[in-house]
Design goal:
The chain is α/β, with parallel strands linked by helices. The strands form three sheets. The protein has a five-stranded parallel β-sheet, sandwiched between helices. Helix 6 packs across helix 7 and helix 6 crosses helix 8. Helix content is 40%, strand content 21%.
Length: 226
């Protein structure tokens, strides 16, 4: 993971230089862009493993760019970097599809920790899992049902991966939050319910939505059998 390619989309050249200076000695390769347009061009033309994305950019908002990334590069990890510290802003960024969120000013040590945590979650070195007709490959980030591809957003993919890795076990919302968002990300536990509904909706066309069961008063369970 230390040789991962990171794209910094940030209009403050001082922060760009600081991040390059801090990350490259750890083995990361860093590309930089000052605008959403420049960042998108790099994403389309280079192999990027993680994006550090500023919320406020001169040509369009980072949230708008994140929407576009999730539409065309749904599994590309994104950490939002912003001065907006209010809870509703954090929730908005995470709901749009950010993998993590860090506010300015931040310590480089904390940022590195978050980068490694996101890369561990999104670039797992594990074997594919198959349960019935449902197949999930953590390395390629692909899901198939009877050879038909199923394109999941990043959070739903992480939830499904965790469920399939631990079938027939009941998990609380807090436990699922830690796995899908990371222990350092603070969002309401009820956010899990929203993403469970979305995951079930993605599985519904294949009649697999009932695999994810609600255990009243406790949380959720992924059953091997419907």
């Amino acid at each position: 993971m230390s040789n991962a390619v990171i794209l910094v989309i940030e209009d403050d050249e001082g922060i760009q230089d600081m991040l390059s200076f801090s990350l490259e000695p750890d083995g990361f390769k860093v590309h930089s862009a000052c605008t959403a347009k420049q960042g998108w061009e790099i994403i389309e033309n280079k192999q990027i493993d993680l994006v550090l994305l500023d919320w406020m950019l001169p040509d369009r908002s980072g949230i708008d760019l994140l929407h576009r990334i999730r539409k065309y590069y749904s599994q590309l990890p994104v950490i939002m970097i912003t001065a907006r510290a209010e809870e509703e802003d954090r929730v908005l960024g995470l709901d749009v599809g950010a993998d993590d969120y860090i506010t300015k000013p931040f310590s480089v040590r904390e940022l590195k920790s978050r980068i490694h945590a996101v890369l561990r979650r999104t670039m797992p070195d594990e074997q594919p899992i198959q349960i019935g007709d449902l197949y999930l490959d953590p390395v390629s980030q692909r899901v198939r049902v009877n050879e038909q591809g199923l394109n999941l957003p990043p959070t739903e993919f992480r939830l499904l991966h965790y469920f399939m890795s631990h079938p027939d076990r009941v998990f609380t919302r807090g436990q699922l939050l830690d796995q899908a968002w990371g222990a350092q990300v603070y969002v309401e536990e009820r956010t899990v319910d929203v993403h469970i509904r979305r995951l079930r909706k993605n599985l519904e066309p294949f009649n697999l939505d009932a695999l994810i069961q609600t255990v009243h008063g406790r949380g959720y369970r992924f059953s091997k059998q419907i």
